[in-house]
Amino acid sequence: MSAIWALVVYIAAIIVTNAVLKRNIGESMIAGFVVVSLFAGPDILHVMTGALTEAMQEEVTYAAIAFVVASYLMSRTPILDRLIDIMNSLFGRVRGGPVYTSILGGGAMGAIAHIGAAVTASVGSVTIPWMKRSGVSPAMSATVVAGCAGMGITFPFSGTMFILIGSAGVSQLLEPNEIVLPLLAAGLWCLAYRMVAAWIIVRRHGIQAMDPADVVPARRSLRTGWTSLLLFVAILVPVLVTVGPMGAGLSAWTGVDVSDAISLIVWIPVLLVTLVLFLGRRHLPRTASGWWTTLGDSAPRIGVIGVTIVGAFAASNVLSELGLPAQLTTLLSALDAPLWLLAIAVGVLVVAVAIPLTGSATMAAIGPVAVTALVGAGVPAPVAAAAVLVFASTEGASPPAAAPIYVASAIAGVDPVRTFKPLLAYFCLPILALGVLMVLGVLPI
Predict the structure, then answer these.
(1) HSE-up (13 A, CA, CB side) for residue 93
(2) Nearest-CA neighbor of 400 among 374, 414, 380, 420?
(3) Which residue in 145, 213, 319, 347 has the most C-beta neighbors within 10 A?
């Protein structure tokens, strides 16, 4: 059980370094990585080297840095201000309009893209600056967007869903088409809860509608800022060419699965930066020295975010090398308890694994045994599978190692630690509770 203890010590090391020693989250992640690596014993250097190498090749690391650069460049141009003027013309008179729009946008993007970091990046690049402009704190803006990251897992037909139902243990319990409607219902329950959470956030934090004097008439905002809507091209183009009829047609024509060949998390920021450079060219530097100064000003934010994400992924790789998935599977298969207690135990274990791992890795590691345990207690297989996917969907809202937290925090320009408590309170624990209620039949799916 050394890997389980390593997970406990890893989380404790991060909390102590950050909360007690008052070091920033980047340094805290490094401390967690070093501490968890000690469990590798004599192989520590080999394990650390391999873990760091894999972590620095993660697409999310690149994407987070790219979005920091894109956000900083947009702040130097009027592009985003004009886009926000348009959004406020449409929704600014609704109290908390940007928050509700962010939740719905996360649900829509999640149903299409299914990738937590991609959902966070694409939705957050627009709605986080809008929420901040509307009076929502940077920390809460990042919290709302990161809290929506997992919705891609709770809607058909995510890669995580196929990993689970294609596993040897689960494929014997249900046919693939049996999970579609239960998972759709589960996703709608999760979306409905998030709208309730948005309502609570808006009222608890005193978020008001925009002052009518600050709301530009729609006709005028569109006339002066319509070019800013081209930013959505950075989101739409990668999505359209990888999913739906166009994605299927391109895959058939090329003989390559374009959804695997074209990474949303890579190409969305590439196109976003390209469009910002084009649309904001009159307001950006035109000399090498000017660019050196501009990029240098964004370096402190890039450094902390980059180190934080590399540290999180490196520690995750070490835990996998130590055998965390297998040890948690052994622990879960040994559970013998009433259904309500079993549902809570299964949910907590899946959420615990999703802290250092992605949703897909969590399903590959512990998903089959989690479904089998629930089915063995009398839960219908489609319901059990959908509930386990709901548990795994907390990946984006599970501090301290969830990548979407750092992507959202990078866009918001806020210390990620400030999102940890609200993420647990508004998203992680309530989504865990929703999964338990689905297992118990209280929420029909």
Answers:
(1) 8
(2) 420
(3) 145
